[in-house]
Amino acid sequence: MCGILGLLLHNFEGEAASEICEGLSLLQHRGQDACGIVTCGAKGRFFQCKANGMVRDVFDAKSLSTLSGGMGVGHVRYPTAGSSAYAEAQPFYVNSPYGIVFAHNGNLINTRELKAFLDADAHRHINTDSDSELLLNVFANNLQKTGKFRINEEDIFTAIGGLMVQVKGAYACVAMLAGFGIIAFRDPNGIRPVGMAARRRPITGPTDYLFSSESVVADASGFSDWEDVKPGEAIIITRERVTRRHLMPSATFAPDIFEYVYFARPDSVLDGVSVYRSRMAMGEMLAENVKRVLAAENLEVDVVIPVPDTSRVAALELAQRLKIPYREGFVKNRYVGRTFIMPGQQTRSKNVRKKLNAMALEFVNKAVLLVDDSIVRGTTSKEIIQMAKDVGAKKVIVASCAPPIRHSNVYGIDMPSPAELVAYGRTTPEIAEAIGADLVIFQTLPDLIASVQQFNPSLKAFDCSVFSGEYVTGGVNEEYLSRIDTMRSENAKRKVGSVVPDRVEAAEMAPGRNGPLNGADETIGLYNSWTAMSPNERANRAIVS
Ligand SMILES: O=P(O)(O)OC[C@H]1O[C@H](OP(=O)(O)OP(=O)(O)O)[C@H](O)[C@@H]1O
Ligand SMILES: NC(=O)CC[C@H](N)C(=O)O
Ligand SMILES: [Mg+2]
C-alpha cells in the first residue's frame, strides 16, 4: 500500500512542499520504505526530492526550501512490484510529453503485456521493474498521441480513458502536468482509495485543492468538502477550474476491504465509511463468534488484550460486548513503525519484539484473549503469544477481526506467495498450533463484509481476494499467480533491497538510507548522482530542475 497526495495552491508562487510533507507524514502508515515530493514552480519547472526512508528522515527545512512552487505531488512507498530500490521511489517523472510527474498506489496485473507494448509499439524506455513506471508511460504515450502543442482537459480524459482499457489491476493515481495542473484517477473497480477536498480562505475567496489517499490529510490541513474519486473517474484541477469525468462507469465498484481491516487510519473516512466505526463493528461481530466458540469449548477468559496498534478499536468494543475487562497488556514503542509492511521476514520478526513489550502483571496466571485485526504471515502472533507465555499467561486465545488469509494479494499489498501465509493449507486448529495459541477464533467473511457495508449500503461488493481467492478484475489465474510468486522470490535472491529478502537486515534498511548497498545490483535513479554527494546532500538536492 502506498500513500499518494497532490496539492494545488491558488497562489502560483505559494510553497506547496511543506504542506505536502505534513500530509505525507499523515499517510506514513501506508508506506515506510521511501517517500518523495515533486513540486512545480511558477515557470513550469519541476523540483524533486525523494529517498528511501520515512518522511521525517528524508525531508527537513533545507530540503523543503529547495522545492519551490504552489503545486506538487507526494508519495510514500510500500513496494509491491520490483524492489525497494531507491530508483523505484516515487513520484516518477517523464519529460515527454509536456512534463509529467506521477504517483501510484496499487499494483498492476498485466505488466508483461504493458512492457511489451511500451517497447514494441510505443518505443518508450523503461528503466526499472516498477509497475508504476509502466503506468506512467502508458499515460504519457496516450497523451503523446494527441500530437498537440498544448493540451486541454478533453485530451487528458481521452488519455486516461485509453489507459483504463489497456491497464489491468489496482491503481489510484495522482499526476501533475508542468504548468497545467494536477490530476487524480482511480481504477474502474475503485480498489484503492483516493479523494479530493477544497479549502477556501476566506470562505468565498480563492481555493486550494487537495488529492489524498485518505481523508485524514484533509481534516488535518483545514480542507473540507471531502469527496472520493469515483471508480473509473478522473478529476483534473487547474487554476481556472475543476473538471471531472466518469470514463469507465460500468465496472463493479469493489474497494479493498483490507483497507478497513488494517491499512487505513481509523480517523479516515473511505468511500463513505468511517474506518473507526467499521473497526468497532468488527469488534462487535467478532464478540458474537468468540462467545459461541468459548461456550462450545467450555472455556472462559479473564481479560481481553489488544495487539497494538490497529486492533485497539475492535478489541475495546469486543471486550465491552463480552463484559470482560480490557487491558493494555502490550506496551508499544512509539518509535517503531508498522511491522507488516517492513521488508524481510527477519526484520519483521525482530521488530515485533522491539515494538511490543508484555507487562507481566496483566498476564500472570490469566487466560488471556489477544485480539488482532488480522493474522497474515503469523509473525506478530507467534512472537506475542510466546511473550504472553513467557510472562506467565495460563492460556492464550487469539481472535482475529479478519478471516483466515489464504490467497495472494495482487492489488497493492505485499502478499505475493500463499506459502508465506500462516493460514495457507492449514485448518483453524493447525493455525493455532503453528502460532502457538491454545485456540484461534476468526471473523467470518460475511460478518467482516457486514461490518463495513452497514455504514454505506450502496457499496455492493468488496475486493476480498485474500480471503476468498476471487479476483474482481479478472485476469488472475493459476499461471499468473505462480509467475508472480516465482518472480518475487527471484527478485529477492537477485537484489538486495528487494521486497522479500531475508538478508535485508534492519541496519541496512535504516531510515534515511538512500544509497545502494555494497555490492548490490541496484538501478540508480536517472536524475541523481550518488558518488559526489553525502546522503544528506542527496536528499537535500532539487534533482529534476
Ligand atoms: O501476521 P502478520 O504477518 O504479523 O501480520 C499481521 C499483523 O501486522 C499488522 O501490524 P503492524 O505491526 O504492521 O501495524 P499496527 O501497529 O498498525 O498494528 C497487523 O495489525 C497485525 O498485527
Ligand atoms: N503499495 C503500493 O501501492 C505500491 C505501488 C507500486 N506497485 C510500487 O511497488 O511502487
Ligand atoms: Mg498490528
UniProtKB/TrEMBL annotation:
Q: Which SUPFAM superfamilies match?
A: N-terminal nucleophile aminohydrolases (Ntn hydrolases) (SSF56235), PRTase-like (SSF53271)
EC number, as in UniProt:
2.4.2.14
Q: Which cofactor does it need?
A: Mg(2+)
Mention one GO molecular function.
metal ion binding
Residues in domain Glutamine amidotransferase type-2? Answer: 2-240
The annotated pathway is: Purine metabolism; IMP biosynthesis via de novo pathway; N(1)-(5-phospho-D-ribosyl)glycinamide from 5-phospho-alpha-D-ribose 1-diphosphate: step 1/2
Cofactor details (free text):
Binds 1 Mg(2+) ion per subunit.
Which keywords does this Swiss-Prot/TrEMBL entry list? Glutamine amidotransferase, Glycosyltransferase, Magnesium, Metal-binding, Purine biosynthesis, Transferase
PROSITE patterns xrefs: GATASE_TYPE_2
- Positions in coiled-coil regions: none
Q: Which superkingdom does the taxonomy of this entry point to?
A: Eukaryota
A Gene Ontology BP annotation from the UniProt entry:
purine nucleotide biosynthetic process
Q: Its family?
A: In the C-terminal section; belongs to the purine/pyrimidine phosphoribosyltransferase family.
What's the protein name?
Amidophosphoribosyltransferase
* Species this chain originates from: Hydnum rufescens UP504
